[in-house]
Every structure is written in C-alpha cells, then in structure tokens.
Amino acid sequence: MARAGGITNAVNVGIAVQADWENREFISHISLNVRRLFDFLVQFEATTKSKLASLNEKLDTLERRLELLEVQVGTASANPSLFTS
Amino acid sequence: MQNSKASSEEDLDSESKDVTHFDQSLQELRDLRSQLHYAADYCESTFLNAKEKKAVVENTKEYLCRAVVTVVDHLGCVSANLNCLVSETNAFSAAELRINCLKQRLLSCELYANKLSLSRVRWSEIRPRHHSHYLLSSAASKAVGDIEKSNEGLRDSGNLTSTKKVIDEKHIEVDRDQDGNVPLFFYTFGNKPAALAKDEKNSALALPVGDGLSALSKCPNPTFHFQEKRKNGRNRKSAHGSDILALIRRAKRTP
Questions:
Q1: Nearest-angstrom CA–CA distance, A64 and A57
Q2: I want to staple B74 with a disulfide (CB 3.0 to 4.6 A). Which of A1, B29, B118, B148 is the partner?
Q3: Interface test with B, best of A12, A42, A69 (most B CBs within 10 A)
Q4: Is B28 exposed, middle or buried (CB count within 10 Å of its CB: 0-12, 13-18, 19+)?
Q5: How many contacts, defined by CB atoms under 8 Å, are there between A and B?
C-alpha cells in the first residue's frame, strides 16, 4: 500500500510538473505574442511619425507657397494700372 | 467640369468613410481595453474562490487567447486605416498642382505687365527731345566773352581784315533778318552786297531766306530754268512758223 501510495504521489507530482510546464509554455507564448505586438506598435509609431512629418513638411511648403502667391496677388492688385493699356 | 465635381465628391465621400472607419476601430480598441481589465479582475476572483482551479485556469487561458487575437485584429484595423489615411497624398498633389497653376498665371501676368511698360517706353508719343542747346548764366557768359576777347587779341593782324569782313556780313545779315528777307547769295558770296546795291532790280528775284536750310530748299532748280528756256524756244519756233503760214496765205490771197 505504501508503495502504491508513493507511486501515485510521484504520478501526481509528475502531472503537476507537466501542467506547470504547460502553463509556463502558454505564458511564454502569450508574452512572446505581446512582445511582438509591442514591437509592431513601436514600428508602426515610428513609420506613422515619419509619414506625418513628411506630410507636415509638405503642408508647410504649400502654406509658404500660398503666402507667396497671396503677396504677389496683393501687389498686382495694388497696381491695377500695370494691366491697363 | 461636372466630371471633376463628381470625382471630387466621390473622393470626399471615400475620405469621410475612411475617417469614420478609423474612429470606430479606435473606439472599439478603447472599449476592449476596459473589457480586458474587467475580465482579468473576474478571472482572478474566480480563481481564488473556486475549488477546481484547473477549469478556471483553462477558461482563463482560452479567454486570454481570444483577447490577444481580438486586440491584434483591432490594432491591425486601426493601423491599416491610419496608414491608408496618411499614405493618401492625392489631395496634396492636387493642391500642389493648383499652386503651380496659380504661380504660372502670376508669371504670365508679370510678363504681360512688363511687355506693356516696355511698349509704353518705346512708343510714347510725348517723348522728351533733348537738343544740343545750352543756356549759360550771366556770370558764365561774361567769363566766356572775356576768353573770346583774349583769343582775338592773340590773333594775327592779317586776319583782322577777314574777321572784320565776316563781322560786317553778320551785321548785314542781322539787319536783313530784322527786315524780314535776306538774299540767298548773302550766305554764299562775300562780295555780293555791292552787286546788290548796283542791281536793285534783281533784288526782287532774290529768294527770301529765313535760315540756311529753308534757303536751300527754296533755291531755284537750274534744270527747271533750262526747261523753261527750251519751252520759250519752242514757242518762238511756233510763232515763226505761224508767221510763215500767214505770209503763204497772204501770197495766196494777193493773186
């Protein structure tokens, strides 16, 4: 009886260890996927920042061009005698 | 124009749809965050209170897997929408094209204005004319007169007679100008005034001269005189022929 109880205890410990290892494996998988997700988010933030920076630069250039055009149109409209023959 | 308006309306509709999709995905991700926090608290409480903890752990594992999958799905959706919105630069290119068009129009207007101003400068009717005519002040004219006097004193005595002649001629010219008309040969020959004094009948034939150029333009053409002489000769010939014809007629009548 004592031998059988020792075997069952060993089996139970083995099952518990196996379950523990399975749990650890599951947690490692989950953590790995979360890290991948984090890496993806960091990379996505960088690419989005660069794209937004390029868009901001384009908008700045467009605004400057528009300001220049406004000034030129203002000067041309201030001297209408230039266009009257 | 209608096609462009329709295309612009379609672009605006698609952009508004993308924006609404992006907002919806972001809102779902925020809701999922709160749900995950609530699910984690529920799993913890059930694990502590439950007798069969193995089933609770398995349920929690399944829920965690599904939650990670849904989070990844939502993140992918949000990132795709954001990437789509950021990468759409058609509006910027259109605005750039419009700005370039406006710039080109302004350049053409500037060129037109420059052309107009240049044409005004080139073909102005009231153009200022600058003659080589200068007016000296009184002090400057006195200084110039003194210099001329000193130069005249340095000249030879032989030249004095010629200068006197020239001065006399100039005096005569001035007197004639004051009267009105001056004979042409006053400007050409120096000894003609004596001849003019002798032949006052020919003075009526002399041309009135205001200045040198008008005298040149009004001077009689020698070829014209020659033609007039020829015409007189022909008239004489015709008169001589008429006399002969009259003599022949008389001769015919007399018998």
A1: 11
A2: B29
A3: A69
A4: middle
A5: 57
* Residue B72: predicted pLDDT: 87
- What whole-number percentage of chain B has pLDDT above 90? 1
Task: Transcribe B6-65 into DSSP letters.
Answer: HHHHHHHHHHHHHHHHHHHHHHHHHHHHHHHHHHHHHHHHHHHH-S-HHHHHHHHHHHHH
How confident is residue B251, by pLDDT bands cut at 50, 70 and 90?
Answer: confident
Residues 6+ away with beta carbon under 8 Å from B172:
B186, B193
Inter-chain contact A30–B64, Cβ cutoff 8 Å?
yes
Length of chain A counted residue by residue: 85
pLDDT tens for A35-44 read 998 999 899 8
Which of A30, A39, A63 to mutate to probe the B interface, most B CBs <10 Å? A30
Residue B117 contacts A, CB cutoff 8 Å:
yes
Rounded CA-CA distance B196/A27 in Å is 142
Q: B10-14, B82-86, B193-197: lowest mean pLDDT where? A: B193-197
**What is the ipTM, given to two decimal places?**
0.73
